[in-house]
Amino acid sequence: MTTIAAPPAEFGSAELRAGATRVVVVPALGGKIVALELGGRDWLWRSRARSARPADGAPYHETGDTGGIDECFPTVAPCVLPSAVARYGGLALPDHGELWSQPSTFALETRDDGVYASCAWHGRRMAYRFARTIVARASAQVELRYVLTNDGRVPLPFIWSAHAVFPLDKDTRLALPDSTRVRVWEEQGIALGGPGAEMRWPRAVANGKMHDLSQPDAVARAFAFTVYADGAGERAAIEQAGARLEAVLDGAPLGGFCIGVDKPAWSPFRRGRNAHRVVLAPSIGAPASLADAMGPWHAAASVDAGATLEWTVTWRAVA
Length: 319
Hints:
The structure is a single chain. By secondary structure, this protein is mainly β. It has a single domain (2-318), classed as Beta-galactosidase, Chain A, domain 5, CATH 2.70.98.10. It has two helices and 26 strands. The longest helix is centred in the C-terminal third of the chain and has 5 residues, at 290-294. The relative contact order is 0.17.
């Protein structure tokens, strides 16, 4: 049986259950995934603060940064596209892209092989259609299937990231294929060489000391960084309290992972940000800014006029 509905007037959620697998989606908040239960564990970090309904172009940190998984497209960082880009030259793109700040359409269907939930969006500044189908399976596995269609008459440049946020504690481990090339996008409270600096996972030299980035809580007392692992890292995992969650990215051009660690200093003030978090985000293109991806990083993706691109992310619990 299939049910289709427009985004609700007030916040609501849809729950997908298949055996012990559970996914909770909020269509009215850009299709945000707020719960991902696999292998007996709810993996995602989320704040207790309730999201406000975001306005188009609003800063993400003011209304959207409440954890879970957000779809970031066609950029992550706000930017202005280079003037030479056909049709879109000089276009200003908002923080975390266009999808998180607009309600998605929603369809829910139960089939013999799992529960399916589809969200879809239309581009506001660029001519595209973006769709994501979640497939929850009883085998402790969740598939996210993506379809991007360029409705314009020129190539569509983009980067994409499924911005997944997890809690960070002393037991957190991050796994990528050994010696995967990673490049620095941002750093605070730690010196990793500055934007564009390269290293081989998981080793990094900071302040004259060798660090193991796969054990992020042990790196320093207070710091933050964002790095991008290139195509050699189309498989990654996070481990916590003896449990392991793997992510596999399949069919994506320029596919890789964004890894972000946010370990702020303790603050006695109510409005201080004390949550320790880690981002493990399947991505296409790098870095967070589409303008930089088209410029010095030379790592922007593109889909031809009238063409469609499909890819899949599989999250699965591993015993």
